[in-house]
Amino acid sequence: MRIAIVGCGYVADMYMQTLPGLDGLTLLGVFDRDPDRLATFASFHRLHAYPSLDALLADERVECVVNLTNPRSHHEVSLRALESGHHVYSEKPLAMTMAEAEELVTTARARGLALAAAPCNHLSDVVQALRQEVASGRLGRPLLAQAEMDDGMVSALDYPSWRSLSGAPWPAKDEFEVGCTMEHAGYQITPLVALFGPVRRVTAFSALLLPDKGAALGAKDLAPDLSIGVLEFDGGMVARLTNSIIAPADRSLRIVLERGVATLSDVWEYHTPLRISTTGSDLRARAQRFAEKKLSAVMPKLLFGRRVPVRHARQVPRTQGGHRMDFSRGIAQLAAQVERGAPALVGPELALHVTEVTLALQSPAAPGQAQVMRTSLPAP
Ligand SMILES: NC(=O)c1ccc[n+]([C@@H]2O[C@H](COP(=O)([O-])OP(=O)(O)OC[C@H]3O[C@@H](n4cnc5c(N)ncnc54)[C@H](O)[C@@H]3O)[C@@H](O)[C@H]2O)c1
Q1: Domains of the chain, with CATH numbers?
Q2: Of all residues in the chain, what percent are helix, strand and coil, respectively (each to 5)?
Q3: pLDDT tens digit string along 17-35?
Q4: Which atom of ligand 1 is nearest to the CA of 76?
Q5: CB count, 10 Å around CB of 39?
Q6: What is the pTM of this model?
């Protein structure tokens, strides 16, 4: 699939790091509304720079627009791309409101175009291995997920010095105004709904705990820097999801099933270990091991569980962000779906549902009141 990138900022470099080695994608060129950024990025990566969005969209060879602009530009750029007949792969969130997100989905459907949004971490081999463990039924029914998306107290870090490979500064003002929930909740919601199906209700709390962190940046109307939500799934499972740029970094996901616990240490990391512990629920066996005084031998497994061997189809490069996050895998998946009829693992329904759950976490209807989700997904 022939693609073009709009938005040449901080994350675009990470896409450039993860594009090599993915089959079937040809990058024709890039555009950014900031001419200096466009020139720097295009020359750093030796890419064709389109002089305008119109010029990019008028290039008949471009089949898919990869929208890596800031969240508040997503709707505008994706809509232009769809209306001019292009498939779209967008960074998250799909849009900033449900009305905008729904307009994109309706436009894509009406024109028979593909539309999908990041994150794509549910495509990782380790999440697929988790899917198999759950589907095998060995551990029983999934009951509860404990999902953390804490990024540390970012405002206390030296973020003004953070630069992408080609020199883009980390967009702190934008990040604080859009908020960590809109920016990051999808990294937990996407694997959860991909594995366990749609969310029926969300009960959430959100707050802005550090309101003055953007003052020096001229940031206004800062978004919540904490959200905590309870997600009730159609299938009966419950998840507790915390997002913050307050608490120490923790991006773990724990799935508690009837007969064990499956843990991913870091959902941003495509090579994160998957551990299964079956001891917690089996008190009798644990008591017997204690009695047999074999505690020291079994202690690591008791604490952390057995590590499930995972075969990685591709060695994901470590990006400038320090993680092995395969940003471009979602585009390759979209291309495989369009061109080879691959199973629909990314798409408009998933992006829309993740957006609705994310918005419910960011802006709860009323304290303590459950919000019923309007969108859904086929059961996995
Ligand atoms: N920064 C990260 O570490 C990171 C990681 C993962 C995902 N993301 C996501 O990537 C997206 C971009 O974030 P970023 O950090 O690269 O931001 P950024 O500000 O560094 O880059 C965005 C670029 O888009 C350009 N742009 C904005 N609106 C435009 C428009 N209408 N037309 C053309 N160009 C436009 C800006 O000029 C800018 O250069 C966001 O959706 C963000 O959530 C960021």
Answers
A1: 2-117 (3.40.50.720), 123-325+347-372 (3.30.360.10)
A2: 40, 20, 40
A3: 999 999 889 999 999 999 9
A4: 31
A5: 13
A6: 0.95
